[in-house]
Design brief:
By secondary structure, this protein is α+β, with helices and mostly antiparallel strands. The chain has 8 helices and 15 strands. Strands 1, 2, 3, 4, 5, 10, 13, 14 and 15 form a 9-stranded mixed beta sheet that branches.
Length: 308
């Protein structure tokens, strides 16, 4: 068994819905019950990557097979053929109907029977969340709870202490994109809130690990606020867009056809893990699509493996 860790960056606003909302947002994003932080369910990751692999295989094969036909080979026990290595690989990674290979005695004898997938997909939790800054456009905010959760995911015993109220921690004040020098004191303005910044060596390992992924420019935007402030930012400063439907005959808004939809903003970064129960050749693509509204350009993400 091996475990791999990945960082995922939202390139265009991402909507993975939680169903019909009861508040002011009609279609809210899915959130963790205990933190109210946005997250990406492992089922969403698995489903998106499964679709990507099936479509990729359909393009590569010369048999003129449609993605839907390949899908049937994974789900219909009468069409599943364990001798087809491409299909067997997908079945091993993502799993298939429990009865698919049981009818094939030769497959069972050769250890090729399938059922549940042999790759486990964890939920992706938020690591960095963009917040509008008075200087430097935006900051990439995080908090001690998130950083410690990140270290725990990686299996390291390093931890970050709490941040006092009204303050933020940064790795270096020199060259930071968002800090304002006010009489030799560094201030940070996020939305309508003012913070006093102080340097902290505790952030070094975290900034090094995620900095490789977000790039040198964004690395100098990382700030660590306290847990409560971070919860306020991820709860109240997501992107909410209003949608309408136009009546083709009148050219005006159709009655009752107005709704709001919530998105995780671009530049947000998540972390997730893959656990391999068998030695399988599978690596997520560098970029792919997650969630809804693909025809509107929403939900494109990029992924990179964390080398720890």
């Amino acid at each position: 068994m091996r475990k791999e860790h990945y960082l995922l960056k939202v390139l265009t606003p991402l909507h993975i819905g939680a169903g019909q909302g009861l508040g002011h947002v009609d279609l809210p994003i899915v959130r963790e019950a205990h933190t109210n932080f946005p997250y990406i369910p492992g089922t969403s990751l698995k489903g998106a990557l499964r679709n990507w692999e099936i479509n990729q295989l359909a393009r590569e094969r010369k048999r003129g097979e449609k993605p839907s036909q390949l899908e049937e080979k994974l789900t219909d026990k009468d069409k599943f053929d364990p001798a087809d290595r491409d299909i067997l690989r997908l079945a091993k990674i993502f799993g298939t109907a429990g009865e698919v290979a049981k009818q094939d005695k030769e497959a069972v004898e050769e250890g090729k029977e399938v059922g549940a997938g042999k790759v486990l997909f964890s939920d992706a939790f938020i690591v960095l969340f963009p917040v509008k800054s008075a200087k430097g456009i935006f900051s990439l905010t995080t908090c001690p709870y998130v950083i410690n959760r990140f270290f725990e995911l990686l299996g390291t015993d390093q931890r970050v202490k709490d941040v006092p109220e009204g303050k933020v921690k940064v790795l270096n004040t020199n060259g930071h994109k968002n800090l304002i020098n006010d009489k030799n004191k560094y201030k940070l303005l996020l939305e309508e809130f003012v913070f006093e910044a102080e340097e902290s060596e505790e952030l070094k390992k975290f900034v090094e690990l995620v900095g490789i992924f977000v790039g040198e420019e964004n690395k100098r935007r990382i700030v660590c606020v306290n847990d409560t402030d971070f919860m306020d930012f991820v709860s109240n400063y997501t992107e909410v867009r209003t949608h309408i439907k136009i009546n083709l005959d009148t050219g005006t808004v159709e009655e009752g056809a107005l709704w709001t939809e919530e998105y995780v903003p671009a530049e947000s970064v998540f972390a997730f893990s893959l656990v391999f129960l068998e030695e399988l050749d599978f690596t997520p693509p560098a970029t792919f699509h997650l969630g809804g509204d693909i025809t509107n350009g929403k939900g494109f993400v990029k992924v990179q493996k964390l080398e720890v």
